[in-house]
Amino acid sequence: MHVRDQTIFALSSGRPPSAIAIVRVSGSEAGTALKRLAGKMPPPRVATRALLRDETSQAIDDAVVLWFPGPASATGEDVAELHVHGGRAVLASLFAALSAMKNLRPAEPGEFTRRAFENGKLDLTEAEGLDDLIHADTDRQRRQALRQLKGLLGDRARDWRKAIIEAQALIEAGIDFSDEGDVPAELIAPALVKVRALLAEIKEVVAAQGRTERLREGLVVAIAGPPNVGKSTLMNHLARREVAIVSPHAGTTRDIIEVQLDLEGYPVTVIDTAGIRETEDPVEQEGVRRARARAAEADLVLWLADADGDVVEQGAAPVWRVRNKIDLDRDRGKPEKSGAREFRVSALRGDGLSDLISAMIEFASDFFGANEAALITRERQRRLLEDTAAALERSVAAIGQGEELAAEDLRAAAYSLGRLLGRVDVEDILDVIFREFCIGK
What we know:
This protein is an alpha/beta fold. The protein is 44% helix and 17% strand. The protein has 13 helices and twelve strands. It has a six-stranded mixed sheet with strand order 3-4-5-2-1-6. Strands 8-9-7-10-11-12 form a six-stranded mixed sheet, sandwiched between helices. Strand 3 and strand 4 form a beta hairpin. Helix 6 packs antiparallel against helix 7 and helix 6 packs antiparallel against helix 12.
């Protein structure tokens, strides 16, 4: 039996033990499996209580089952859902019963979503949105992923592709009627108007993307500086837990320590690095090398120091000077911020950290951009839209050189959008030509 013809099953809820576990079955044998387990077929899309039994009629669990006949299901296939108690023994018994049935097998990672895509329930942008939604750690990541799952980019891309195919059909019809006097010009002129409008719209989307791609991964902030200035203490304060060892001895931190933060919905990865100094210790030397490399890759560097004269190492990323240990400065009664990119704090007591955190939130807001309606969330999407725009530009430039070249570039643009959606169908252009222009009739 072909792999796609096989019926798959898997746990679709959280890891056991849990109060309730949901096991999903999808494929042509889903109905048969459900009937053999429950003893009867429930009405479609109606939650029904049933005592599940294995092949030897031994009771597995008192469950709630649902039946979704295809194609009106999440995957487009016949789907059964088994809501059982979430104990490990219950699930093990249920999986054993399912595995014993012919043509049933455990699902591979992402296979339910892949079948939904292959059956036209999702396009690739929506599938990517679903993956991002599952892995969203912050509210802003959740909102961005939900927009993709609802088809924000996919719907626009389908409209663009349809318009490109219509323009391509006009140009190819003009080629076919090239001996009919003014007919080609009358067909190509509206096609050119359509292509130019599409090009401007797609360019605007690409230009407005800001840093929305990075919202999936988060902002990277590196805490760097010389040894024994309080980098690990600051890290622990930001994380609100003990994630780094704090010691009065220099060189305590030898490797990179990372912690994930949610700053008002913005995902931020804060990195505690080894103290940067000259040392003969080969292990500490490696820590310093890694610290410099990681700081060079960061989006923002917090350079900690405990004296105004300390040298700050500059890199490509913005560097904020943070003077720590102001609680030991007898000449200052209260912490104060000294300049737009300089902060005075006490990582031990927390003085001045509210100003630093507020500035980090503002930096994240500017970094990711405030455009909530941004369409592009992945490099793959941006690259394919850039390919589409480039092909449309070539098509406009080729109009005066030959309609065949322009039509070919439009075909490339439609292909790029088809790859964006995961729907590349060469028959689309033929359908438009025969339906709209009745060529050959």
